[in-house]
Amino acid sequence: MAGNIYEEERLVREYLLFHYGDPDEVLPWKHGPRDALGFAARCVRELLNSSAVGRDARALDVGCAVGRSTFELAGQCREVIGIDSSRAFIEAAEKIRRAGLLDYTYAVEGDCTARSSARVPAGTDSGRVKFEVGDAMDLRADLGTFDVVLAANLLCRLPDARVFLARASQLVKPGGQLLLTTPFTWLEQFTPRDRWIGGTGGRDSADELTALLEPHFELKTSKDLPFLIREHARKYQWSMAWGTRWLRR
How far is Cα 87 from Cα 3, in angstroms, rounded to an integer? Predict the structure, then answer.
């Protein structure tokens, strides 16, 4: 298994732009998949049933990266904890939380860069947010339970997503919401083949994931969520995540 590539400075800059970049910074072209922009905020806005979230709700964002979705959850919940295995990602997110912004550079071409700033979203109470380094496969025992748990594009980057899903059934309160997005990009670099959820032997990943969750959760929402990660001005990763909202039985 490879080390954590998400500690690399290049990835930190890419994810700061992915999470916080203005649309014209991320995609400075007239023709392009603009519906794929702003994914970190959209995965909350398009999946969360906000009307079912109480004033004192707690939320957990596992695999929060540099924190944009964590701040989005803070608009709905009194307390939000963002956890990621990358210390570099969490350090960036915490700098944004404390100072309100973080200046960074992003790639244009070759070693040419442009400058931007990642900012706490307007109107967000950053005092509701905590960030910490943690392992989704071994989350600390004293986290408690949550009204909302989000795991955006995490499952296919874990050594064994079943371990996290089993813990999720304990983390989400009865009647609470589990929000998942995943493009099912199974790679042996991250997950041994025998730990993939579908994606091999003719097995469909969405069907396999549903079968794993149904004993504890009811599927309430299912939709395709495109997302776009910029590498430089003329190279992008366009992907389609399967977005779901599950209600804890």
Answer: 13
Count, in order, helices (H) and strands (E) of the chain.
Answer: 7, 9
- Give the C-alpha separation, 230 to 160, whole Å: 28
What are phi and psi for residue 66, nearest 5 degrees?
A: -95, 10
Residue 221 parent element (H or E) = strand 217-232
b/e string for 224-245 if b means 16 or more Cβ within 10 A? ebbbbbbeeeeebeebebbbbb
Distances (CA, A) of 114 to 57, 68, 104: 39, 21, 9
Helix (H) or strand (E) run with residue 68 in it: helix 68-74
Say which amino acid occupies 76. Q
Distance of CA 76 to the CA centre of its chain: 17
Domains of the chain: 5-248 (3.40.50.150)
DSSP secondary structure letters along 106-141: EEEETTEEEEEEEEPPTT--GGGEEEEE--TTS--T
Any bridge partners for residue 118, and if so which? 102
Encoded amino acid at 56, one letter: D
pLDDT in tens, 186-242: 999 999 999 999 999 999 999 999 999 999 999 999 999 999 999 999 999 999 999
